[in-house]
């Protein structure tokens, strides 16, 4: 176990180093000067030259990358020209908001997808199985912006039960939980179908195994067969898939946050990219990759704990 963790942590460090170099190079070698991107298209050449000198952008690329990497390792992520504050402050606030949204959605997606996937997979080809499968395909096929507009049309414009935006501000009379309902609903609808189909496919495969047929032929109750023999084995493959949904819920909900004006991590990256805020995009990319690698490590550990063959090997 210790050797496994050591290898994964070393892989994480190497991945972060490569990503940091690629992100830095992406802004460095794209057309146009960095100072021009910061000041905008209407700045004079004199202002661009002065800012270039102040930021030290006239030095060699390797020197500047080493300096930026050193500051990043010490926790200094730079200054945001868009939000007019330290990147540390804006990243922390936005990531906290997205984690709240992702946590609520994940707490709904996981148990619901397991229940629906197992219910469908227990009796392949039944009416319940087909109904759940069709509903899963339909919800996953609808883009997030479309389902967001559809739900807002019903619950905001028609019924007036919920707010149309989610700025996490109670000044308009809506509570925080009321503001979370629509963004969470869109995320659950979009992501639930994929996880349900993965759990169903794994359950269908397990139900055809010889040990399941043997247990049923011995007269064991069907409920006992499912709970004691099928469930644990059916969850081995979907476990990694379920954990990897955290990547989407934290870093991939740009559309949801943009539709509902939610002050989250994904919307921050979108706004920073459009405004060419180099410091925010660089820091955001590093955090996104770190979350992705950590969830993969957690998925590998969970897979190893659930599957004794891998654990003992």
Describe this structure in words.
α5 packs antiparallel against α11 and α8 crosses α10. The chain has a domain of 175 residues: Orthogonal Bundle (MetI-like fold), CATH 1.10.3720.10. It has 313 residues and is mainly α. β1 and β2 form a beta hairpin. The protein has 15 helices and two strands. A two-stranded antiparallel ribbon has the order 1-2.
Layout of helices and strands:
Blueprint: H1 2-28, H2 34-39, H3 45-54, H4 61-73, E1 79-80, E2 85-86, H5 87-122, H6 127-141, H7 144-158, H8 176-207, H9 210-217, H10 222-234, H11 236-251, H12 254-259, H13 265-274, H14 278-306, H15 308-312
Antiparallel strand pairs: 1-2
Nutshell version of this structure?
The protein has 313 residues and is mainly α.
Largest sheet: 2 strands, antiparallel
Computed structural class: mainly alpha
Bin the strand percentage: under 5%
What is the CATH architecture term of the domain at 89-263?
Answer: Orthogonal Bundle
Segments where pLDDT lies below 50 for 5+ residues? none
The rounded distance between the terminal residues' Cα atoms is: 11 Å
Overview features:
313 residues; mainly alpha; MetI-like fold; two-stranded antiparallel ribbon; 15 helices; 2 strands; 77% helix; transmembrane; MetI-like; membrane; cell membrane
């Amino acid at each position: 176990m210790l050797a496994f963790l050591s290898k994964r942590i070393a892989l994480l460090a190497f991945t972060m180093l490569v990503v940091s170099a690629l992100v830095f190079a992406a802004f460095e070698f794209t057309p146009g000067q960095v100072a021009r991107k910061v000041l905008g298209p209407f700045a004079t050449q004199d202002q661009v030259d002065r800012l270039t000198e102040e930021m030290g952008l006239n030095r060699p690329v390797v020197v500047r990358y080493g300096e930026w990497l050193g500051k990043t390792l010490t926790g200094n992520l730079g200054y945001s020209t868009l939000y007019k504050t330290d990147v540390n402050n804006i990243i922390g606030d936005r990531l906290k908001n997205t984690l709240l949204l992702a946590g609520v959605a994940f707490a709904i997606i996981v148990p619901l997808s397991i229940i629906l996937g197992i219910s469908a997979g227990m009796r392949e080809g039944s009416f319940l199985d087909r109904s759940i499968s069709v509903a899963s395909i339909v919800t996953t096929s609808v883009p997030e912006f479309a389902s967001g507009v559809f739900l807002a049309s019903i619950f905001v414009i028609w019924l007036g039960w919920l707010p149309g935006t989610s700025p996490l501000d109670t000044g308009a009379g809506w509570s925080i939980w009321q503001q979370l309902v629509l963004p969470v609903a869109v995320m659950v609808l979009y992501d639930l179908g994929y996880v349900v189909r993965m759990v169903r496919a794994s359950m269908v495969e397990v139900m055809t195994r010889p040990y399941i047929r043997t247990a049923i032929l011995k007269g064991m109750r069907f409920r006992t067969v499912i709970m004691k023999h099928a469930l644990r084995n059916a969850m081995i493959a979907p476990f990694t898939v379920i954990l990897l949904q955290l990547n989407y819920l934290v870093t991939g909900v740009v559309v949801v946050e943009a539709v509902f004006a939610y002050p989250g991590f994904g919307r921050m990256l979108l706004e920073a990219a459009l405004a060419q805020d180099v410091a925010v995009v660089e820091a955001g990319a590093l955090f996104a990759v770190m979350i992705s690698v950590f969830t993969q490590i957690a998925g590998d550990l969970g897979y190893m704990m659930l599957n004794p063959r891998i654990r003992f090997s």
